[in-house]
Amino acid sequence: MKIGFTLPQTGTVAWQADQVARYASEVEQLGGDSLWVIDRLLSPPNPVIGYNGADTFPEEFRAILDPFALLAVAATATERVLIGSNILNTPWYPPALLARTLTTLDVLSGGRLVPGLGVGWSPEEYDAVGVPMAERGARLDETLDALDRLWTEDPASYEGKHVRVPETRAALKPVRKPPVYLAGFAPASMRRVARRADGWLPAVVLPGTVDLDGAVNQPLAAIRAMAAEAGRDPGALDMILRIYPTVRTGSVVDDVTDVIKRVEGETEVRHVLVDLMYQADDIDTLLKQVQGILSAARPA
């Protein structure tokens, strides 16, 4: 089982940005397999849509570091781990700019970039970037097409209804075409995964009973059936499971470890990422939790 962790990006640790490189390096030395960022822009006091079913945003979102900058730090501070996004709100970004940034990160890391892409859900954030939220699904589809052109053709161009890339020389390519992972459980999102993605990013939340059959196995079977209908190899779709312990507790290491062991025994997932953003106020505590999870999930 590959085990990854989010970078210290939100909340109190956002003021400790000068330690992100050390964190990334030590996670790799401890045996972690991947490092991840999220993509939040605003923290509305009275949001139209709250976070994760709540009426508000988490306090941690009041301070957040830029995902691309953190991935660049992680890319240069490590040698082996994958670096990924969970997830980039893709319609916010013009495809040419996004392709340039992702290509840079893949080249910096020597081909270790795993871009997780999605559409987001916050109306206020869409207002802030000047993109109509109602177009987010169509813009994601067109951006995927544009990225494919920019990563495989030279010269490259793309003309869609919502996004456009004029013809350009595109000599610098990623080390390898980055495998695109998509998130989401809505029917349209699952169809997009089946038709277009290299992998899927399901998620489970702690504490509480984790239904791996409902969260992973059943939706995966549906996605694979749709992939087969679309003429794709359903077995080629990868998965990385996101684990979110949302309440700070002293048992987080045990709770996460128990879920990882269940995932290994009850699903086909062989790569998980653990988001510890609610669990600590300093980098050293985060690293102790990372060490505890890795040691417990991989007993000698």
From TrEMBL:
InterPro entries xrefs: Lucif-like_OxRdtase_Rv2161c (IPR019921), Luciferase-like_dom (IPR011251), Luciferase-like_sf (IPR036661), SsuD_RutA_monooxygenase (IPR050172)
GO molecular function: alkanesulfonate monooxygenase activity
Luciferase-like domain ranges (all copies): 16-248
Record-level GO BP terms: alkanesulfonate catabolic process
Gene3D superfamilies: Luciferase-like domain
Pfam families given in the database record: Bac_luciferase (PF00296)
Keywords assigned: Flavoprotein, FMN, Monooxygenase, Oxidoreductase
PANTHER family in alphabetical order: ALKANESULFONATE MONOOXYGENASE, ALKANESULFONATE MONOOXYGENASE-RELATED
Full protein name: Putative F420-dependent oxidoreductase
Organism name: Actinophytocola algeriensis
Upper lineage: Bacteria, Bacillati, Actinomycetota, Actinomycetes, Pseudonocardiales
